[in-house]
Amino acid sequence: MCGIVGAVAQRDITPILVEGLKRLEYRGYDSCGVALYINGQLKRTRSTQRVAELEALIKEDNFSGFTGIAHTRWATHGAPATHNAHPHFSGQDKGEPRIALVHNGIIENHDELRDELKALGYAFESQTDTEVIAHLINHLYNGDLFETLQQAVRRLEGAYALAVFCRDEPHRVVGARQGSPLVVGLGNNENFLASDALALAGTTDQIIYLEDGDVIDLQLSKVWIIDSHGKPVERRVHTVHAHTAAADLGPYRHYMQKEIFEQPRAVGDTLQDIDNITPDLFGDDAYKIFKDIDNILILACGTSFYAGLTAKYWIESIARIPVNVEIASEYRYRDSVPNPKSLVVTISQSGETADTLAALKHARSLGMEHTLTICNVQTSAMVRECKLNFITRAGVEIGVASTKAFTTQLVGLFLLTLALAQVKGRISEEKEADYLKQLRHLPTAISAVLALEPQIMAWADRFASKENALFLGRGMHYPIALEGALKLKEISYIHAEAYPAGELKHGPLALVTEHMPVVTIAPNDELIEKLKSNMQEVRARGGELYVFADNDSKIVNSEGMHVIRMPEHYGKLSPILHTIPLQLLSYHAACVRGTDVDKPRNLAKSVTVE
Ligand code: F6R
């Protein structure tokens, strides 16, 4: 999704802006641009290509400057075209641009503002909601950009992170945050703004996380923040050790492959320092809150939603607490029946997903105060907004498709299951110790599954020529089938759907022919005989089965039935292990098809708009 970098310094900042954009590339974008103050004028370069292309254009134009802003855009209002790319300019006096602005988020009242500004004589050169803000600021400009921005944001409805500078105040960049992340990076006689601290890695590790409603004034040796009540405010400075190493591919072809292979480490790190199960893993008040609640509401999007669906099976069967799992973008607008005794659990890799944050706020507005998040980013809005949290230690995930974030979320959710079961008195000490032992063995078990890569690559070759695929699972492996189908469609663009295997005969079986590959997750659990019958239904219609089976499930290779054996049967934690081969299958199918694996078309890493 969109990314922002801004700087005010006494040296040429173009390398900092370009490097920042490169660090944000993984989030997904379709155009990019940079604007600088150069010799009394505002200059900009924009491109619908990659940041490397923009960098070449900057060199060609011989751009350098000490104040500027840069942006990667993921189109919402207006096509991905150069004239819609940020920075946007405004300036009616003498026809010269005076204001330069970049924006993440969506301005909901842009139509109304555009009409107003058109009536004042402003001409629009883009279809974006962003250009409206540039003209609004230019219209209100009174010689003090910081004051003007404070006035301007009062007119904006929606979500935004803004960075703005003005030709008439060349040593100043101002910004504002409402609903979209924005951080300040502190330097020595230079200061920076960015939508993510990662963008400033290597430039500064002194980071301030702005809060909703903050407006910020950035000068060479001064950073001034006004909060949502218009009062000056001091925000804590964090020392952030950004994961520069995450940007190195090492021996891998893509970040997604690297991140799949990092899972033993990511799961191990997530379990590090956990000597026993205790509600304190989720925060100081967890015991009291877990005691009080009588049901759980899980809110999330995409892959994180599937982690929530898996957790429902665990929590209901082990902790015996009823669980509802809802897609955040649905829940936030649904007329639901609130229960103040619910534990509201949000799951999010980024901790900035707009729909999940809005769903959380909606739940709270309905009187549900017990909130917990499973999140991969300690400093994110989600962690700040929830009373309790568990931080997964997947490390920065650069591939747009979630892999190690998902498996570490599952680890966090399993720990939550055990802690809830303990507080509710529904698990014996022996059983708890047994589960903890299994969790500790997970990194080794995942490594053994990763060793299946060559066999999975052979399957991927056959998959690559297909345009459709079905995924089947039963019980707690049904959400894993959903995740497998999502992974395949998002990176290889093969249309894939997942069903609980028992549901096949109620409709989807009509799709099964000899051209339809059917991926089946077949662990040797209490549903295996039922699943075998479902597989026969597929074979009888000529469908080709690709089965991940346990050693002892007595499913063997035969005509139309391809079997890969999982190294070990893993009981309740089996969904985590079965995720791995599905990630590898999607990854290699996408490689054979030659898609842009790490940056699939139309998608963004951190979805900060509704
Ligand atoms: C798919 C994927 C997305 C995210 C979803 C939620 O591979 O990554 O479906 O899971 O956009 O993102 P987070 O977890 O950051 O809230």
TrEMBL record:
<keyword id="KW-0315">Glutamine amidotransferase</keyword>
<dbReference type="InterPro" id="IPR017932">
    <property type="entry name" value="GATase_2_dom"/>
</dbReference>
<feature type="domain" description="SIS">
    <location>
        <begin position="459"/>
        <end position="600"/>
    </location>
</feature>
<dbReference type="InterPro" id="IPR005855">
    <property type="entry name" value="GFAT"/>
</dbReference>
<dbReference type="InterPro" id="IPR046348">
    <property type="entry name" value="SIS_dom_sf"/>
</dbReference>
<dbReference type="Pfam" id="PF01380">
    <property type="entry name" value="SIS"/>
</dbReference>
<keyword id="KW-0963">Cytoplasm</keyword>
<dbReference type="InterPro" id="IPR029055">
    <property type="entry name" value="Ntn_hydrolases_N"/>
</dbReference>
<keyword id="KW-0677">Repeat</keyword>
<comment type="function">
    <text>Catalyzes the first step in hexosamine metabolism, converting fructose-6P into glucosamine-6P using glutamine as a nitrogen source.</text>
</comment>
<protein>
    <recommendedName>
        <fullName>Glutamine--fructose-6-phosphate aminotransferase [isomerizing]</fullName>
        <ecNumber>2.6.1.16</ecNumber>
    </recommendedName>
</protein>
<keyword id="KW-0032">Aminotransferase</keyword>
<feature type="active site" description="For Fru-6P isomerization activity">
    <location>
        <position position="605"/>
    </location>
</feature>
<dbReference type="InterPro" id="IPR035490">
    <property type="entry name" value="GlmS/FrlB_SIS"/>
</dbReference>
<dbReference type="InterPro" id="IPR001347">
    <property type="entry name" value="SIS_dom"/>
</dbReference>
<feature type="domain" description="SIS">
    <location>
        <begin position="286"/>
        <end position="426"/>
    </location>
</feature>
<dbReference type="Pfam" id="PF13522">
    <property type="entry name" value="GATase_6"/>
</dbReference>
<comment type="subunit">
    <text>Homodimer.</text>
</comment>
<dbReference type="InterPro" id="IPR047084">
    <property type="entry name" value="GFAT_N"/>
</dbReference>
<keyword id="KW-0808">Transferase</keyword>
<dbReference type="InterPro" id="IPR035466">
    <property type="entry name" value="GlmS/AgaS_SIS"/>
</dbReference>
<feature type="domain" description="Glutamine amidotransferase type-2">
    <location>
        <begin position="2"/>
        <end position="221"/>
    </location>
</feature>
<dbReference type="GO" id="GO:0004360">
    <property type="term" value="F:glutamine-fructose-6-phosphate transaminase (isomerizing) activity"/>
</dbReference>
<feature type="active site" description="Nucleophile; for GATase activity">
    <location>
        <position position="2"/>
    </location>
</feature>
